[in-house]
Specification:
Layout (H helix, E strand, L loop, with lengths): L1 H10 L6 E2 L1 H14 L8 E7 L5 H8 L1 H4 L3 E6 L15 H4 L8 H4 L2 E5 L15 E4 L9 H9 L2 E4 L6 H10 L3 E7 L9 H5 L4 E2 L8 E4 L8 H9 L6 E4 L2 E5 L15 H7 L19 E2 L14 E4 L11 E6 L4 H4 L6 H9 L15 E3 L2 E3 L4 E6 L5
Parallel strand pairs: 2-3, 2-6, 6-7, 12-13
Antiparallel strand pairs: 1-9, 3-4, 4-5, 7-11, 8-11, 9-10, 13-17, 14-17, 15-16
């Protein structure tokens, strides 16, 4: 039975990532440094959480007075509504409570609230949390959790990665402030990218260039390299490191207003540390009027046209310095990116390249000398002249 449970846990959806206290504190500090009153007088909702031991709940409860919160609400998802391979054991906190219910502990979500000094020790912290069972399983799409969303001013959590698009839309539709952890690749989703382009969503202070470590359920399948990386960062046991996780937010922070230092096109070609740029002129796409920029630090300061940059550019994106024109993949038709053409396809395969492309495909492509190149996903930008 133990082996069956372990095998089942390895096959469960990779949605059970538990955020570390340090990473939450680091991100919130960035918002507080920019605006010390960012949470003052506000109700903060932490959905998709497990309040008894959640580091999100712990951080906001411990800092309730410091942040000037009005109210804290934390909810969990019922164990029976999670993949059955995820192990569950009620905490002693719940079992020892007179309100413990053997049926509801697995069928219902829980709600923890904090709004004042319940213990009378003149300090508002974790000890003042009040709890109960939700009427339903805690699914964020339920009317019960929607009502809590509507009550809240700010929503902060690490939602299931598989539901990120839907969860973000759930928040944006309600016009709430938020900070969410997600996969960096979510930038390119057709539901997410327009929000970034319109400056309604941006990356948090802890972006793609920083490793985030997460605790995972026992038996969860973790790549050995990620487990070892987590151990080197001080997390030994059931932990994994995700190099492509980042925060998505609409809370402002100073990092996104720092100008990116750049060299001119000529200086990049002469001095760049990248062999793809040094002594090599910038390549124009075959099927769109823009140039290929393989690295964010190789953006030329004096080029006035459209440039295709890696999605990791958004780590350094300053809306006063750059304008986002579009996404070279999901907005190809809208931008007028032309099909690659049969000659490009023939040349591509004749050079031994793999991958399925066809003449009607309209992703960005270019040639480096005689070599045909299909770059990874690109964001199209240009300088905001007059604002730099």
């Amino acid at each position: 039975m133990a082996n069956e449970n372990l095998h089942g846990a390895k096959k469960a959806k990779n949605d059970e990532f538990y955020t570390q206290f340090h990473d939450i504190e680091k991100e919130m500090n960035a918002y507080l440094e920019y605006d010390p009153d960012v949470f003052k007088g506000k109700t903060v909702l932490l959905p998709c959480d497990d309040p008894e031991w959640s580091n999100f709940t712990k951080y906001f409860a411990q800092n309730f007075d410091k942040l000037g919160l009005k109210k804290l609400i934390s909810t969990s998802y019922a164990p029976n509504s999670k993949p059955k391979e995820i192990p569950y054991q009620p905490t002693l906190f719940e079992i020892d409570s007179p309100d413990f219910d053997e049926t509801k502990t697995v069928s219902n979500g829980k709600i923890f609230t904090l709004s004042g000094d319940r213990t009378g020790d003149e300090v508002i912290n974790v000890e003042d949390l009040e709890w109960g069972y939700l009427g339903g399983d805690g699914d964020f799409r339920s009317d019960e959790i929607k009502a809590l969303r509507d009550e809240a001013d700010v929503i902060i959590t690490n939602p299931p990665f598989s539901l990120f698009r839907e969860f973000l839309a759930w928040i944006v539709d309600a016009k709430k402030e938020f900070a969410l952890i997600g996969n960096m690749n979510a930038i390119t989703y057709k539901e997410v990218f327009p929000l970034i382009k319109e400056d309604r969503v941006w990356l948090g202070a802890t972006a793609n260039s920083t490793d985030l470590v997460f605790r995972v359920p026992v038996g969860f399948e973790v790549a050995e390299s990620d487990r070892e990386k987590a151990a080197r960062l001080g997390y030994v046991g059931d932990y994994t490191r995700l190099g492509n996780a980042c925060w998505f937010t609409n809370l402002d922070h100073g990092r996104r207003h720092r100008p990116l230092p750049l060299m001119t096109e000529a200086d990049n070609i002469k001095f760049s540390k990248h062999k793809q740029v040094k002594d090599v002129r910038y390549q124009k796409y075959d099927n769109y009027d823009a140039i290929e920029i393989p690295f964010t630090d190789a953006i030329p300061s004096d080029y006035d046209g459209v440039m295709g940059v890696p999605i990791s550019f958004l780590d350094k994106y300053n809306p006063e310095q750059f304008e986002i024109v579009g996404n070279g993949q999901t907005m190809a038709n809208e931008l007028g990116i032309r099909p690659v053409g049969q000659k490009f396809v023939d040349d591509y395969y004749s050079q031994g390249n793999k991958g399925q492309i066809n003449a009607k495909w309209n992703n960005l492509v270019y040639r480096l000398g005689q070599k045909v190149v299909v770059p990874y996903q690109r964001i199209l930008i240009r300088h905001q002249r007059g604002n730099e």
